[in-house]
Amino acid sequence: MKELAAELRKYKQVFVVCDRNVEGFAREVTGLRTGGRSGEPCGLLAITADEAHKTIDSVMLICRWLLEMGADREALVLAVGGGVTTDMAGFAASIYKRGIRYANVPTTLLSMVDAGIGGKTGVNLDGFKNLLGVIRQPEFTAIFPDALQTLPEREFRSGLAEMLKTFIIKNPSHAYERTVAEGPLPELIQMAAGIKQEIVEKDEFESGVRRKLNLGHTWGHAIEWRLPGAYSHGEAVAIGMVQAARYAERFGIAEEEGLAARIGKDLKACGLPTELPCPVSELLPAIAKDKKAQNGQIRLVLPVRIGKVVVKKVDPSTL
Ligand SMILES: NC(=O)c1ccc[n+]([C@@H]2O[C@H](COP(=O)([O-])OP(=O)(O)OC[C@H]3O[C@@H](n4cnc5c(N)ncnc54)[C@H](O)[C@@H]3O)[C@@H](O)[C@H]2O)c1
Ligand SMILES: [Zn+2]
To answer: Does residue 19's CB lie within 6 angstroms of at least one atom of ligand 1?
Structure first.
């Protein structure tokens, strides 16, 4: 917390935008007082952070508040919350006065290892997820694992799936095995966040290596589309990762024997689902329509072993 305070002192004005469910934590972690002096936040706006409120209207609300508060071009917006909050506050900061700086204090496991890193910001439009947005990097992402103490169990597991995904892509110091055995220890969360950061630095606009982060998401997104609300994002991705591993085995891409069974067992041990809730044929329409599909082919991320994945263009019918 001391480090965050020191970081905030670098900015003339700091405006905190937090999820109202973590307002207490946000006040504590930012040392919010009445404000005004350099480094002390000038104000805090608590917002409703759910998918239904992840809209341009909420972003306008944030922008209007910044204007009323007298935020100038040197101001910093500090987002405190899960991915909904960091996506919206980051987007608001990116368009206010043609873009001011922002930083994240993620409060869900998913936002610590994924949403809070990488600079993708945005909101939903007419039921289309993240249709409006920009890619703009935060000044920093400060992780306080203590924030997770109040996180609902299901949200926690959802983040765990994305964290394991990261370690299937890259697995330094047996981070994958340790996460399965010991849970998301602070050191492991930091490691997963670092891997995502490293990938993003190599490929900010997702034309190469960043695609690897979509492991499990081809099936995952389709499950979320087919059975809305039945699975959390991470749960759907967990099922997708097992499917990806099975596919990799079927087409001789997996080098590790029993890779799919191993991933399935590990995800299950973490309380995550691993089996498709419907025949794959029911998912194909969504998979084929994937916004990243190119002349009928989709890019599939396939695990070779724990710590290595490859991206292959395939025909959706092979699924
Ligand atoms: N920008 C990106 O790269 C990126 C990546 C992945 C996901 N996302 C986006 O992130 C969003 C999902 O974010 P999320 O899973 O982090 O969660 P979220 O922001 O949807 O929060 C989930 C729930 O947990 C509550 N909550 C948050 N922190 C809490 C805490 N510490 N204690 C108690 N309750 C808490 C929230 O109020 C909410 O009810 C989606 O909208 C998705 O599109 C963005
Ligand atoms: Zn995801």
So the answer is: yes
